[in-house]
Amino acid sequence: MAPRDEQQTRSRKKPISNGSTVSSIGNGIYVSDNGSRSSAREERLSRRKSRVKKARSRSKKEGTPLCLAATGVFCVYLFLCAVLFKSMPEEQRQVGISKVRDVVQKTKERVRKTKEKVTSKFSSFRHYDVADEVHSDESASAAAAAEVKISLLPGIPLGKWPVSIRNEEFNFEEIEHPGHLDGSVMMHVPKFWADDPVAIHQNKQMTRERAMAIGTCIVADDKGSFMRGDKCPEDQRTIFVAIASYRDFQCRDTVDSIFSRASYPERVRVAVVDQIAGDDVSCDRPHEPCETNPKQSLCRWKDQIDVFQMDAALAVGPVFARHLGHRLYRGEYYSMQSDAHVTFTRNWDVDIIQQMEATKDDMAVLSTYLTDLQGSIDENGNSKRNTRPIMCNTEYEGVGEEKHLRHLSQPEAMPEIKGMPQAQPYWAAGFSFSRGHFVATVPYDLYQPMIFQGEEMSITLRGFTIGYDFFAPERSVCFHSYEKFAPERNKVHKFWEHSNMYAGTGKKAMKRLLGIVHMNPEVDPSEWDHREEKKYGLGGARTTDKFYETFGIHVKEKTVERHLCQFVKNKMHNMMMPNLRSDGMGIDYSKIHFRWKDPRPNEP
To answer: Which controlled-vocabulary keywords does the entry list (predicted)?
Structure first.
């Protein structure tokens, strides 16, 4: 970006109007078309600060005296009515009772009719997009039939396309900020698409029928349903992209890269949790005003960019930010997670879907630590790399009850497994691509603030027990900004700049994280928070013990069998894939009896 553009972006001089559409989104303001120095931006900053101020002053105890007083007045009123009613002659009492019954009956009838109208309108809202408003009665009947079909699979909501949280503000919910679980700070956030993950996987290996009931297509079938399962052509399958950004100047360039280099950008929806402060540039703000350059990706595809903006002072680490990101999922066929400082390759969407489908495993999750951007992409946006990084190297760190596993640097070499992604034991947060139901069934835990290391092993184990299998992509479709922008990136703020505001929360969160995945057996379960443990917990398809035994992790001794990469680089894939279920719903670990043992225990 030119210096002049950057100066305009960060300037706070007299604002000018650019016709922006501003609407409230959660604890921030969504600006659909941000021009330089716009009045909308000034209003957004002002409203965001006001919301944070109000949130901090809000307390559940404030209304207690008022509620008690109201309850007392109501009780006195009831007492007086009872005395008056008892003193009435019998004939008047019977007339009064009859009138009350009539009023109650009429009220019930009005409520019933109102409910029918609301249900009818809401059903229409769920089934149709803007173009569907002119659908015939025959299409409405088909949609009703689709509703009945979906209802046969409890716990799985309907999906539609296009979709945006901007249309759901009326249905947001309030949650306690995880750094203030005393209720002193509340946040207004989108609801989950599927509020109960267990209702989807039913605490067992998910069936193919249920998996195929999740995932939208950009084109509806002849019955008006966007939920077409594997009958949806690959180039019409929607992709949800979740990005958590903390005051990151490269975030908007990442979003631009996603759309500008996709083969089919019309099927991509990006959801950003944008944690910013002061003059930080928001992730949806183009480098130039859309009025002067409407061809920019952030202008062309603005309706497919959802930004949940929150004040950086409320940030408590990537886990909470990504939790909010998972709340923005709305039933897309595929889901992807990326860092906020990533550059994508040309035709990345077609490439990664082809790799995903090559596994023939609907429970596959492609994930890796990304290679550095330096020397990785040519001037046409094509990858120059032929190597494959794999996730296989982890070690314990920390002391005492906080000792946990964290991933170390990972090996990268020419693929020994060719023609498809390669099986690996671990999941990485920087890049993840899977079917959409992975986000719906393994949502980030709300109650893990101030966690930076350890989240990846938590998601790995939760996903494994629900039945997911992890793979290293054969080809990288995006690259990470480590070295190329090192001077600029070193100046980017980190979430722990506010750590003094949340002292002690990280230790409590780590106890919960380890407790849920059975990694701290020495700790009394009563010592950690069990809130919504089923929602953010383990599945019933596999056990954590099976994972620990297979990959050489000793949770009591807090040690690992090292040199696991020797097994993962070629042998693991060849051992595991023959046990893929015939319906493509995951590897059957009941047929695997392997236990990794370090072949060189005396070597580093």
So the answer is: Membrane, Transmembrane, Transmembrane helix
> What is the rounded CA–CA span in Å between residue 502 and residue 499?
5
Pairwise CA distance, residues 66 & 11, whole Å = 46
φ, ψ of residue 39 to 5 degrees: the values are -65, -30
Contact between 478 and 345 (Cβ < 8 Å) = yes
310 strand-pairing partners: 275
Topology of the domain comprising 165-591 = Spore Coat Polysaccharide Biosynthesis Protein SpsA; Chain A (3.90.550)
Q: What is the pLDDT of residue 31?
A: 40
Which string of DSSP letters, residue by residue, matches 412-439? EES-SS-SS-EEES---SSEEEEETHHH
Q: What is the pLDDT of residues 44-66, one digit of tens each?
A: 566 555 555 555 555 445 556 66
Note the pLDDT of residue 27.
Answer: 44
Q: Which residues of 526-556 are buried (b: 16+ CB within 10 A; e: fewer)?
A: eebbeeeeeebbbbebbbbeebbbbbbbebe
Q: How many alpha carbons fall within 13 Å on the CB side of residue 234?
A: 11
- Nearest residue to 163 (alpha-carbon basis) of 134, 121, 142, 193: 193
pLDDT at site 402: 84
Token match 């023939």: residue?
Answer: 360
Chain segment 249-265, per-residue pLDDT in tens? 999 999 999 999 999 99
Angstrom distance (rounded) from CA 38 to CA 9: 10
Ranges of the chain with pLDDT below 70:
1-67, 77-78, 81-86, 88-152, 483-491, 495-496
Longest dimension (CA), the chain: 98
Count of C-beta atoms within a 10 Å radius of residue 103: 10
Amino acid at the residue 124: S
**Residue 481 has what pLDDT?**
87
Residue position matching structure tokens 């923005």: 328
The residue behind tokens 């070193």 is 490
Helices (H), 436-540: 437-441, 455-466, 486-489, 505-516
Hey, what amino acid is at 479? F
Dihedral angle of Cα 472, 474, 479, 483, to the nearest 10 degrees: 80
User: With the CA atoms of 206, 210, 215 and 220 taken in that order, what torsion angle do they form, in degrees rounded to the nearest 10?
Assistant: 170
Task: Output the six-digit token pair for 80.
Answer: 């007086």
